[in-house]
Amino acid sequence: MNSQAAPSVSQRPRGGTDPAISIRNVTVRFGKVVAAQDVSVDIRQGEFVSIVGPSGCGKTTVLNLLTGLLP
After folding, report:
1. Stretch 17-39: mean pLDDT, rounded?
2. pLDDT (tens digit, 9 = 90+) per residue, 44-71?
3. What are the strands, taking DSSP E only, across 1-71?
4. In the chain, where the domains are located
5. Which of 17, 19, 49, 61 would be 36's cystine partner, CB 3.0–4.6 Å?
6. Considering Cα of 62, then 70, then 38, then 40, what sign does the dihedral take?
7. Could you tell me which of 56, 63, 54 has the C-alpha nearest to residue 23?
8. Looking at residue 9, what is its pLDDT?
9. Residue partners of 14: CB distance under 8 A and separation at least 6
10. Which long-range contacts (CB under 8 A, 24 or more apart) does 29-33 make?
């Protein structure tokens, strides 16, 4: 068994300052329904991100934008 403790989050190396994923002012509509409006996100390498909100607020739409599943 390894007796060394895992490094705390503050000791772990962080990614660069440039975002690995970035979207700016994106709005997605499905017909007349606005699924996500004016979304801007920067995610840097090594970051963990949570998308939280009520049902129907556009979480899956934003995730699909970030992964390239929506044009």
Report:
1. 93
2. 999 999 999 999 999 999 999 989 898 7
3. 21-30, 33-43
4. 19-67
5. 61
6. positive
7. 63
8. 47
9. 44, 46
10. none
pLDDT of residue 52: 96
CA angle 27, 31, 21 (to 5 degrees): 25
First to last CA, the chain: 48
Q: Which pLDDT does position 71 carry in this prediction?
A: 73
Residue with tokens 């929506």: 70
- Phi/psi for 28 (5° steps) reads -120, 130
The Cα angle at residue 20 between residues 18 and 56, in degrees rounded to 5: 120
CA dihedral 66, 50, 21, 27 (to 10 degrees): 50
Region label for 68, one of left (φ > 0), alpha (ψ between -120 and 50) or beta (otherwise): left
Structure tokens, 29: 């509509």
